[in-house]
Design goal:
With 209 residues, the chain is an alpha/beta fold. It has 5 helices and 20 strands. The chain is 30% helix and 27% strand. The strands form 4 sheets. It has a 7-stranded mixed sheet, with no helix packed on it. A 5-stranded parallel sheet has the order 2-5-8-13-16, covered by helices on one side. β19 and β20 form a beta hairpin.
Length: 209
């Protein structure tokens, strides 16, 4: 017979009030409490706590406190990750995040779900479906990603979006529910490359003053 944890990670109905899951949830709460109580002068301790908290967090990964997660151990994060204040990762299902992913304030990744039927829901049965995020993704503030969603690479998700369905590569998507607004094009690259060139020209001039 499967354990409640095995059922949870398999995306099946399970009951969270379980001794094994309780221990792991308490560990996550302890680590997040310690993390959220650190100061800006304890950056090394913050990094150590993040490394202990997650299944994996890559090089140059950072989260601004405060932060919340159910387990942490079901979350895998790539390199060059940044999440601003008040991020919430409900990782009862696996969360997988690629490289170069940036999150504005109050982004929520919610793998947890509950049955629509009220009678079954009242029996404390719930489920978790994985969330997968590609590389080079930027989330505006207050974005919510729902259970079972896959977001491609090179994607911008606009502020306040509720992502209920998969989002393909190379697009800007926004709204509730979140929909593709337009593709990301070569013109986008050219326009921002021009702004980048202006920035570095200004920096060179400043350094020569």
């Amino acid at each position: 017979m499967k354990s409640q944890k095995e059922r949870m990670l398999a995306g099946e109905l399970y009951i969270a009030h379980d001794a094994e899951l309780g221990r792991e949830n308490r560990r996550a709460k302890q680590l997040t409490r310690q993390f959220n109580q650190t100061t800006e002068d304890q950056m090394e301790e913050r990094q150590q706590l993040l490394t202990s908290m997650f299944k994996r967090i890559g090089k140059h990964g950072y989260i601004e406190p405060p932060f919340r997660t159910d387990y942490g151990t079901n979350t895998t994060i790539g390199d060059n990750f940044y999440a601003n204040y008040d991020a919430i990762f409900v990782d009862v299902g696996p969360i997988t995040i690629g490289n170069n992913v940036f999150m504005g304030p109050r982004v929520g990744l919610y793998t947890a779900g509950h049955p629509i039927d009220a009678t079954i829901r009242a029996e404390q049965l719930e489920y978790g479906w994985p969330i997968t995020i590609g590389s080079d993704v930027w989330f505006g503030g207050n974005v919510v990603v729902n259970p079972g969603v896959t977001i491609g690479s090179n994607v911008v998700i606009g502020s306040g979006s509720i992502v209920t369905h998969d989002i393909p590569d190379n697009v800007v998507a926004v709204g509730n529910p979140c929909r593709v607004l337009r593709p990301i094009t070569q013109q986008d690259h050219d326009d921002w490359e021009q702004q980048r060139a202006i920035y570095f020209t200004d920096q060179d001039e400043s350094n020569n003053d």
